[in-house]
Write a structure and sequence with these properties.
Elements lengths: L1 E6 L4 E7 L2 E4 L5 H5 L4 H9 L11 E3 L8 E5 L3 H7 L8 E5 L4 E2 L5 E3 L5 E2 L2 E7 L8 H7 E8 L2 E2 H4 L15 E9 L10 E6 L2 E7 L7 H11 L7 E3 L21 E6 L3 E9 L4
Parallel strand pairs: 5-16, 7-13, 8-18
Antiparallel strand pairs: 1-2, 1-4, 1-13, 2-3, 5-6, 9-12, 10-11, 10-16, 11-13, 14-15, 14-17, 17-18
Helix pairs in contact: 4-6
Length: 278
Amino acid sequence: MRLATVRRADRTHAAVGDAGGWVLLDDADAQELICAPNWRARAEAALRHPARTDVEAHEFANPVPRPSKVFCCGLNYRDHIVETGRPVPEFPTLFAKFADTLTGAEDDIVVRNTDKLDWEAELAVVVGAEVHRADRAHAQAAILGYAVSNDISMRDWQQRTLQWLQGKAFDATTPVGPWVVTADELDPRAGLRITCAVNGALVQDADTSELVFDAADLVAYVSQITVLRPGDIVLTGTPGGVALGMPEPRWLRDGDLVTTEIEGIGVLRNTIRFDDLR
């Protein structure tokens, strides 16, 4: 099934969907839904209801708006590692984001004070159960599902120091969505096409089977450090094709449309807006 957070005129609603359409629930968002102990039974019962809602006419917000933790893995696709000139890592290269960095599937991404704005298409892993010091099997069982993300990065800020955080932590610059596809529906290890286009021109085109550390690897590894809870997010890294890796980088500009898609999951469409019109 698919789990979403839908914006309507009065408020946001959790929504569950399948091939037959969507059903709105009373929960404020998908994260509130999955934190309830009986959520799956409620969702499955809702999908048996014949009345469906055309939520496609509404906006999809970030499905899990209040993660307690957002972990990100850098240098995790072999082609991206090659384009950076670095060796394949023995352990995941981790950094963190904050909930304030996240935004919705079709929201504008408003930035300022950067001259090197870059795209990074990513598979997002959403945790569905508390997991701590887990092995791979338990980590896999704790994964709720998968969403599309783009780690829009301010490379000039990122490169000011050896620490990446300041180039990755600007508010409302990381779209997630448009929904979560539950883990029983697909397996990224089998290979899902992941792409990013800027104004319709394809800039990234890869396959999730090329991940060095896959979803279960990352959840298990992070769980050795800290407990993960329902709604927490792990971003799995970006493939080759980012502007930073180009001989003559083409950075994002005001008005650019960034389209991020993962096969079997969905599409993000985000327009870049510079509030200082650089």
